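Worked problem 6 (solution included).
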Amino acid sequence: MIAPMIAVLEVAFATASSTNAQEAVYVDPLEYNVVGADYAWRNSSFVGSFNPTGTTPPFIQAFDPSFIDLVGSSATIRQIASNPDLAFAHEAPIYVPDLNVVFFSSTNGDWYTNNIVEMINMTEVDTALASTNDSVNVQVQTLDLADTVQMVNGGTGPYKGNLLFATSGRALLPPSIVLVNPSSPYNTTVLLDNFYGRQFNSLNDIKVLPGTDIMFFTDPSYGWLNQFRPEPMLPSQWSLTNSSNPNGIAFTSDGTTAFVTDSGAAGGFLGNNQTRPTTISDTNGNVYSGCGDGVQFFVGSTTPEMVFTQSGLVILSEETMYLANIEAQGVDLITY
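Solution. The predicted structure is:
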């Protein structure tokens, strides 16, 4: 008999989404140990999700009953913003409580064109959601940033009142770690743009070790794999530990444990290789991971595609943003 998965909650998405809020549903995986030869088998970890109940996405389903206690029996997920013509909601979410605003970056960049950084006002989101049971589409605002900010991909903060971004660089413009004022005119300070005179590959994510000013960041080769950066000059790494393609990074609230995703399964122009890792480096505690088939919660920390706010968990899903109302609270990422 196959043992049930440890407490895992999956938030899955599809092109067609429901309009009304969906509550969390428990799915007993033991009931699906055998699905039969005529089952619509999943042939990709990047498309679709395991949805035995046939629920219309977006939905929340838990594969362990204990996880319902963590998120709450009335947990819901609703769309809060959408643009079917632009993957505007991709990476680097940072929540600034004093402004009640979430900042994030898009994925529409290439060798010749920078991506964009935007923000959404959660007070406007709360007001819109309170007026209806349906999905809402709150307007997002684009920031006008300095040219030193190229291809924002990771972020954390607020750090001493500022947004702390890891940029992947673009073409021959270097990847960097930058501070950005969250208020207009969004003035920028570059903190780091080289490793002993060599450019980084394409910085991906960044977090600050709690209680310190020590910054940990990842540097995979995705800029080259996605053809907006030259061939790497350094090994893919985070800190001093090599991995296939280190991506998101997070810490427990006490700073004793680091979580690092390795998204080596996504190979850019080399194609996807599902035999390579898309894993979490450590699962001691509650880990929230943005995966190819949705968001998986391993029974908190943040990942590049989601961030906790006063209103709930904001999830970035390329052309759409969602808000999941769950009882769990996130780790405080503010550094004073």
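Discussion: The CA atoms of residues 95 and 146 lie 21 Å apart.
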